[in-house]
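Many introductory courses stop at the sequence. We go one step further.
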Amino acid sequence: MTNELVLVGFYFLTLVYSIIIHEVSHGWMAMWLGDLTAKYADRLNLNPLKHIDPIGSIVVPIVMTLTTGYAFGWAKPVPYNPYNLRNQKWGPALVAFAGPLSNITLAIAAIIVSRLLPIDFLERMYLLGKFKVLLNSGGDFFSRWGSFADALAGSVPHVIFGLCLLVVFWNILLAFFNLLPLPPLDGSKIMYAVFSFRQETILFLERYGLTFVIVVLFVLPLIGIGFFSSLVSIILGASLQFFFGLMV
């Protein structure tokens, strides 16, 4: 049980810090482009107390993981003033893209570490298979973690490979989910710049965007309308499959 608890702890710790690094990256890009709002708000650091939203960073991910097998969460957004950016057209898009880019960078770093481990192809495939079983929402939560922990036990390279899987999983999930062109996700800011939306339209979409995302991805599937959520699942699944493939 101890090994399972350690892995579960790292699972949530990876999620929390992946979100924090994502948010801090927005602030660093904004500062690089001329806006110091995040710096003055003391948000350009990795101190979780500065970024954690008690509900979005702790309660929601834990409850969703225990009840559905999947987690969803958020941190306090890092503030920035788009009117201070040197480039008014592409500045907000660059600030938005910095978050997913930081997650992809972390995932690539974990992949490089995993590739340097003295583990052969068959072992890598076995561990990846165990991890995919873990991600399956069926069965008892801790029994699935126990199976994964048993696969990693007794080998330091296996443990490191398992931790790299968690890093890749969370960061690729965060990166490509946030790149979806749905307000208020980061992809919407890129969409605004590419298609030159009117300011009134942007304000409307940002005001009701989160409600729209929740309805489309979580409410509609409950009443049998799961096309959009299925499409998102396909996109995220394909992204994870590609990056997991780089690890073996």
